[in-house]
Amino acid sequence: MPQPADREEVRRDPAQTPLQTGEQVQVPAGQPQSPVQQVSPPNQTGVNIILNVKNDRSWIRVIVDGNPAFQGEVPAGQSKSFQAREKIAVTLGNAGVVEVLLNEQNLGFLGGEGAVVYREFTPPQG
User: Fold this and answer.
1) How many angstroms separate the CA atoms of 126 and 121, rounded?
2) For residue 106, pLDDT beyond 50
3) Between β-strands 79-84 and 58-64, what pairing exists: parallel, antiparallel or unpaired?
4) pTM of the model as a whole
């Protein structure tokens, strides 16, 4: 059985290894800190939707490009995301608790609590 003194110290190149959750980067004294680089998403085509169920459960049905993608009850605190080329059709039961993000734009709630709402989303024109 190896003793602690027998263990080989493993060093990693921080430029080539992703950080672990909660790990902090230390910059040596005298070296400038590089600013955080913002990465722009690629040009989006199609439809991307995120459904965030907030403070109560909601029944949800999603049809992606004409094919059933999801149907069921989603509890508060859960999210569902979907991508389509042509169209996403969404039915929300209890629409007032489901926050909708369409192509990274927050549309808010599509109806009131207890309301059943049907909406279709297509890619932006232009």
Assistant:
1) 15
2) yes
3) unpaired
4) 0.65
End-to-end CA distance of the chain: 67
What is the residue whose two structure tokens read 């722009």? 40
Buried b (16+ CB within 10 A) or exposed e, 44-75: eebbbbebbbeeebbebebbbeeeebeeeebe
pLDDT tens for each residue of 82-97 = 999 999 999 999 999 9
Instruction: Determine the Cα–Cα distance for residues 104 and 121; give it in Å rounded to an integer.
Output: 13
The values of phi and psi at residue 58, to 5°, are: -145, 140
Share in percent of the chain as helix, strand, coil (round to 5): 5, 40, 55
Question: Cα-flanking dihedrals φ and ψ of residue 5, to 5°?
Answer: -70, -20
